[in-house]
Amino acid sequence: MQRMQYGSQCGFTSHAASPAYRYMTLLYSFQVFELGSLFLLMFVNSHVGNEEEYADMDWDNIGFSLTPTDFMYAMKCTQGDNFTEGQLHPFGTIELNPCSAVLNYGQGIFEGMKAMRREDGRIVLFRPDQNALRLKVGAERMCMPSPSVHHFLNAVKLTALANKRWIPPPGKGTLYMRPMLLGTGSILGVGPAPEYTFLTYASPVGNYFQEGTTALNLYVDTEYDRASPGGTGGIKTISNYGPALKPLVRAKSRGFSDVLYLDSVYGKYIEEVSAGNVFLVKENTISTPPATGTILPGITRKSIIEIACDLGYQVEERPITINELLKADEVFGTGTAVVVAPVGSITYKGERVEYQTGDNSVSKRLRSTYMGIQTGLIEDKKGWIMEIY
Q1: For the whole model, what pTM was predicted?
Q2: Catalytic residue list contains 381
């Protein structure tokens, strides 16, 4: 079996008197006696209390970059078996054999989700079951066993609670969590790994783009495409993102926020940007390309479609040409990291087209409703919110 070791380099600096240190001591004490992780967290939270409610950092100036937190969650299984309960570990390095399938053949997928602190102190997740289901779809495509929805939800809840002091104050950001399913077993020939590891780590984040909530400027890349029919564009495999780095770096060097990709067959239908899905607005109609294989079925995308319908907009999922996009009244993007981001301009073959933005825009209304449900200002009538603390 593939051996994986968890490093001792934690995401915090502590001493014997700190709540974080006592938290870790209690964690290892309970793991020695093999007590359940959820019971462990309930006990530790009751004993550590709120002496150190927040980690020591500048919450007014957090961007979307990695800040190591205290704990990560891990569980393993072999090919043909099922995942069982895992454990929390101090956040740190992991050890992989050079022959692991994830290093050699890119056999890995991941999810992105957030834990949010509300004004009343409650900590919530937004539609985490949808992330669990999407991971299962991706795992099947990549010939990987996947955690059950129960095990997935347990992992992300424990990760969020174990890193509770890193969840930003209300309105300052969120705790971004990255569940990962990796083929960590060793294999030389092309084939599925013999062993798999499911990891979840977390980092406090602010806005994804440096522009914050201001309008984005997109560049339509006609040289590179993101996905092709029959490929893996519709799942969050790690192998989708490396090839997108060159066009993204090139676009950013020219002053653009992100790249908008066209389809790989005809080169005229819009697909998505590096960081999420794309919508256009024309009068009272909101349109977005269908998630039918080359486009990731975003959970924010799915939620915005439902919200738009509830608000009385006509919503269409259909192929959209770049020429139609250039004639839209408004364009915006959606994604876990970006939430709902207005697009101020799109540049295509040297032509720059600008779009409506501002307080009266459709994207502003949709974002406000979406965020209202997450923060509790708007009643959650759909059962999207999972309260974990």
Answers
A1: 0.88
A2: no
